[in-house]
Amino acid sequence: MIKRSTLALVGLSLVAGCASSPVAAPVVVNSGKADDPRRIQTLVADCMKQRGFKYVAWVPEAKVSDDVEKAYLGDYEAMKKERSQRGFGVFADFVYPEEGEKRVIWRESDSPNFAVKNQLSPAQRTAYGKALTACRSLALKQVTGKVVTSDEDRAKQENEMIAQRLDRELNADPKLVELATAMGDCLKGKGGQVASLRPVDMSRRGMQEFEAQKQKIALNDDIPDKGLPDGQYYEPRIPVATARQYLNREVKAALDDLECGKDFYAAYLPRTDEIARQVEREFGGGDG
C-alpha cells in the first residue's frame, strides 16, 4: 500500500482510472447544486453506454459514525474518545487494523460497477478503465465546468483549492490566530515543539510529527521505495508490539494537544469542514 503525504482533509475518496479519447459535450452550466453528483453519474452511465460498456449510476453514501463526525467538527468529548484510542491516527491502524477497515468512508467494492468490471477480461478491464476516466472527466466538465484529466488530478485540484482557501480564510482570521497562539503557548509549556503558530499549521502539527516518525521507519525498512513520486512511500511493516509503543506516545501527545487546543479546534474544525464541502460541491460533490 502506498502512503501519500497529502493534506488531512474531510471528504470522500476518489476511485482511480485512466485517460481516454473525448466525446462531444453540451454547453457547460456551473450550478453547484446538491443533485450534481447524480447528474454526473447519469452522464457517465450514458457515456459508457455509447462506448459499449455497462455502467450503473451510483453515488456513494458516507459511512461515518456520529462520534467520528462529531470529532471531525471539534466536539471535545468525541475528540477525546477518538484520541484516547487512536492518537492522531498515524500508528493506530498497525495496532487495530480491523478498526481502520471499519472507518473507510466507502470503498470501490461498494459500487455495483465493481462486479461489472471484474467480469471483464484483463484487456477489457483496461479499456473499461480508460473509457470510465474519459467519461468522468467529460461529465464533470459538462456539469461544473472543471477540467480534470483523471480522478487523481481531480483530487489534486480539490486539495490545492482547499489549501488555498484555508490559508486565505483561516490563517488570516484574528480569532483563530488568537486561539492558535494560546494553544501553542500551552503546548510549549508542556514541552511540545511548535514550529508555527498559524492556525492551519497548528491543526496539523501533531499528526505531522508522528507521520514523520512513520515515514522514517518506512524509508529505512526492507521495502524499496525507489521509483515512487516525491512524498510517497510504501507503508512499513511494523510489529504490533512496536507499533503499540509508538501509539502510546502518540495518544499522550494527542491528548495534550487536545487539552491545549480545546477552544481552537471547536472554532477551527467546523470552518475547515465547511470549506472542504464548498470545494467538493464546486467539483460536483461526492460522486462515485
Description:
The protein is an all-alpha fold and 288 residues long. Helices cover 60% and strands 2% of the residues. The chain is built from eleven helices and two strands; from the N terminus they run E-H-H-H-H-H-H-H-H-H-H-E-H. Strands 1-2 form a two-stranded antiparallel sheet.
Write the layout of secondary structure elements.
Layout: E1 2-4, H1 36-50, H2 66-72, H3 76-86, H4 92-95, H5 97-102, H6 112-118, H7 122-144, H8 151-170, H9 174-189, H10 199-219, E2 232-234, H11 240-282
Helix pairs in contact: 1-7, 2-3, 3-11, 8-11, 9-11, 10-11
Q: Based on helices, strands and strand pairing, what is the structural class?
A: mainly alpha
Strand arrangement within the widest β-sheet reads: 1-2
Please bin the fraction of helical residues. Answer: 55-70%
Query: Describe the biggest sheet?
Result: 2 strands, antiparallel
How much of the sequence lies in strands comes to under 5%
* Shape call: globular
Order of helices and strands: EHHHHHHHHHHEH
Our Rg estimate from Cα atoms comes to: 21 Å
Give the number of DSSP strands: 2
Given as residue ranges, the uncertain stretches (5+ residues, pLDDT < 50) are: 1-32
Quaternary state, please?
single chain
* CA(first)-CA(last) distance: 21 Å
Q: What is the residue-averaged pLDDT?
A: 85
Number of DSSP helical runs:
11
